[in-house]
Design goal:
Helices cover 42% and strands 23% of the residues. With 380 residues, the protein is an alpha/beta fold. It has two domains: 1-114 and 313-380, 3-Layer(aba) Sandwich (Rossmann fold), CATH 3.40.50.300; 120-310, RecF/RecN/SMC, N-terminal domain (Glutathione S-transferase Yfyf (Class Pi), Chain A, domain 2), CATH 1.20.1050.90. 39% of the residues are buried.
């Protein structure tokens, strides 16, 4: 998938910006605060319907403006040219369009333009709590499987409804059990499908992670991922959703009293964990800062490789300030990996000298841009 053009109106520090991109590697340089990251954040909006730098759309609107608008034109190998637009108004909220037709659900955008993002926040993947890793896994699967995304949305609604019932202090136990019964059934059915799909993905993803980590680290350490949930999903590449469903129903019965005490749903994939290892060493507990950095980058490169094989259209690859903390050897390695990717990439860098080595590989595949105070110019 290729983004041929991008238009920003009142988006952060961009008053009105229009850019025509190159088809392969796009390098975006400029001082800190100039608006480099805003450009790829706008692309992220068109791919995922949300910002990767801000927790709320309201903070993305340019100061003193009532709304923002982002529009982009895309082309793919199986899809003719189409336009995606995203707007946010302080009074009306967020809206998404494809070819000027409004999307009824924001989730309908996911997977239309597959995307892989590498950013400084990736350190949270290996160093912080399980929510970060679940989010990575869910995003990874959702862009390849609309049915998984539908199950995920449905599951979250079910958990919210169960939690409301469990939090009702005035409800008697018999009445609560009666009210929970239909939600328990839906929770187990939907949750077991999510667990089975996650297990399948983690099994398949392992080889891509090993490849990416070997290219980046070149050491004898072998990366691996263990998926931990409340039940034993077995060692088979595709876990049995039917068997998981039976164990899920049993686990719900066994946790009923504890759920009443805690007044929340405590059994299900919303509490799952991904554990990262280098050989037998758990990365989160024992990994060095450098090992964390390389592992997180390998996860994103593995995601790119996985999408290249699984999807009919190549993903858009966004890299925000990736080279700032990489040594020259790793920088050289990532450059080569990027240039081998036949899809479209966008790279931001505050210091052009960090990525000056790209010129050694030929200018034909590289398009350079310079950003200053929200203005973008192509560099000859």
């Amino acid at each position: 998938m290729i983004n041929t053009s991008l238009s920003l109106t009142n988006f952060r520090n961009h008053d009105q910006t229009d850019v025509t991109w190159g088809e392969h590697v796009n390098i975006i340089t400029g001082p800190n605060g100039a608006g480099k990251t805003n450009l790829i954040d706008a692309l992220h909006y068109l791919c995922m319907g949300r910002s990767f730098t801000s927790s709320s759309d309201m903070y993305v609107v340019r100061q003193q403006a009532p709304s923002f608008l982002v529009r982009g034109t895309f082309q793919g190998s199986i899809r003719s040219s189409f336009e995606v637009a995203c707007s946010y108004s302080r009074g009306e909220g967020k809206k998404l369009w494809v070819n000027d037709s409004p999307l009824e659900r924001h989730a309908d955008l996911i997977g239309l333009v597959p995307v892989v993002l590498v950013s400084p926040d990736d350190r949270k993947l290996t160093g912080e709590g399980p929510a970060e890793r679940r989010s990575f896994l869910d995003s990874l699967i959702s862009q390849t499987s609309p049915s998984y995304l539908d199950d995920l949305i449905r599951y979250r609604k079910i958990v919210r409804q169960r939690n409301r019932l469990l939090a009702d202090l005035h409800m008697q136990t018999d009445q609560l059990d009666l009210m929970l019964e239909p939600w328990d059934r839906q929770l187990a059915e939907t949750g077991s499908r999510i667990i089975a799909r996650r297990g399948t993905l983690v099994s398949k993803f392992q080889s891509y992670l090993e490849q990416a980590h070997q290219e980046l680290a070149g050491s004898g350490l072998v990366p691996s991922i263990t998926y931990r949930t409340f039940c034993d999903i077995g060692e088979e590449p595709e876990p049995d959703a039917g068997r998981i469903l039976k164990e899920y129903r049993t686990a719900l019965r066994e946790s009923a009293e504890r759920e009443r005490e805690r007044r929340q749903t405590i059994t299900g994939p919303h509490r799952d964990e991904l554990v990262f290892f280098l050989n037998d060493m758990e990365l989160r507990k024992f990994g060095s800062q450098g090992q964390h950095r390389i592992f997180a980058l390998a996860l994103k490169m593995a995601q790119l490789y996985f999408y290249n094989d699984e999807l009919e259209d190549l993903p858009v690859f966004l890299l925000d300030d990736v080279f700032g903390d990489l040594d020259p050897q790793r920088t050289e390695t990532v450059m080569q990996m990027l240039l081998q990717h036949v899809g479209q990439s966008f790279i931001t860098a505050a210091h052009p000298d960090k990525i000056s080595g790209f010129s050694a590989y030929g200018r034909n595949n590289i398009t350079s841009f310079e950003v200053s105070e929200g203005r973008v110019e192509q560099v000859a």
